[in-house]
Design brief:
About 65% of the residues lie in helices and about 0% in strands. The protein is mainly α. The chain has one domain. The protein has a two-stranded antiparallel sheet. A hairpin with a 2-residue loop joins strand 1 and strand 2. It is elongated.
């Protein structure tokens, strides 16, 4: 039975090995034009290139995640009203809450989509490195490329090694520990950035806030514990991915913040300061210019007509 599930898993992952290795080898061929093909720098930059391609492909999902997260924040006052109304009927509360999400086009699970979509790539890269260290090529990797990939070193440590498999090598342990800390810190800061800048005050309490706080503290802890078993190359992938997320999220929050959040106030202050420098009238931070009132129609008094014209229906005699 175990062999059956292993075979099924291998069948499902096989296309991902090909896609991941194809992108990885493509970048490696590019960097090999001016770098040592067997050097750790060329393979490390290839992993960074793979990360950029994957994250660029996930931009539509990220946009969907941001929209869903914003809707979840703005719906919290209405969710609290439902909780107060149906506090003694949990089944009805769940039905009404899901109906609210459906009517507003909000998916509560959209915030997890980018991470879930990256996990197969994460696992395939993990497997590629693990097999390369054993000189077993997978996907489009040739035997020579697998040997180079498995033996490539960066700052004295093999990128296929893990903290747990360092065998006391201080270079491997130091590099792996640095990347584990970097991965953990960037995961924490990414979630912290979202909560501190782009969540209104009403959304800081309730189940949604508890979910966000859980992600804030538990997710980095999970990566910190599991990171000691990840190869250095995989740690580089995830750290680069976190940095991409931070920059992407910073751009979205700065330019399109959710209403009623610190980010929205900061944007309004920037707009007001820019208007003041140009000598334009400064509007309220979160207000819109009031429309000008429509001009009242002017009533025109009818002209007096002679009695002869009134009797003749307004027509003059020729």
């Amino acid at each position: 039975m175990i062999d059956f599930f292993v075979s099924v898993g291998g069948f499902i992952m096989a296309p991902l090995y090909w896609v991941t290795s194809l992108v990885l080898v493509g970048f490696h061929d590019l960097f090999s034009m001016f770098m040592d093909p067997a050097g750790g720098a060329s393979w490390a930059l290839s992993i960074v290139g793979l990360t950029v391609v994957i994250r660029a492909a996930l931009i539509p999902l990220f946009v969907k995640q941001i929209k869903s997260s914003r809707n979840m924040q703005l719906l919290q006052p209405r969710v609290k009203e439902l909780q107060a109304k149906y506090k003694h009927d949990r089944e009805r509360l769940a039905q009404e809450t899901m109906k609210l999400y459906k009517d507003t086009g909000t998916n509560p699970f959209a915030s997890c989509l980018p991470i879930l979509m990256q996990m197969p790539i994460f696992l395939s890269l993990f497997r590629l490195l693990d097999q390369a260290a054993k000189e077993k090529p997978k996907g489009t990797l040739t035997l020579e490329q697998a040997q180079q990939f498995g033996e490539a070193t960066l700052f004295g440590g093999r990128i296929a090694d893990t903290f747990l498999r360092a065998d006391g090598d201080p270079a491997v342990m130091l590099l792996a520990a640095t990347l584990v800390v970097s991965m953990t810190v960037t995961t924490f800061l990414t979630q912290r950035q979202l909560m501190s800048k782009n969540m209104p005050a009403d959304a800081m309490t309730g189940p949604y806030a508890q979910q966000q706080k859980l992600l804030l503290y538990v997710l980095p802890l999970v990566f910190a514990i599991g990171g000691v078993a990840f190869p250095i190359g995989v740690l580089m992938y995830w750290t680069t991915s976190n940095l991409w997320t931070m920059c992407q999220q910073f751009y979205v929050i700065r330019n399109n913040p959710a209403p009623g959040t610190p980010a929205a106030k900061a944007k309004a202050d920037r707009v007001a300061a820019k208007a003041a420098r140009k000598g334009k009238p400064v509007l309220d931070a979160e207000s819109e210019p009031e429309p000008e009132p429509e001009p009242k129609p002017v009533r025109v008094q009818p002209k007096k007509q002679p009695r002869s014209q009134r009797k003749g229906g307004g027509q003059t005699k020729k």
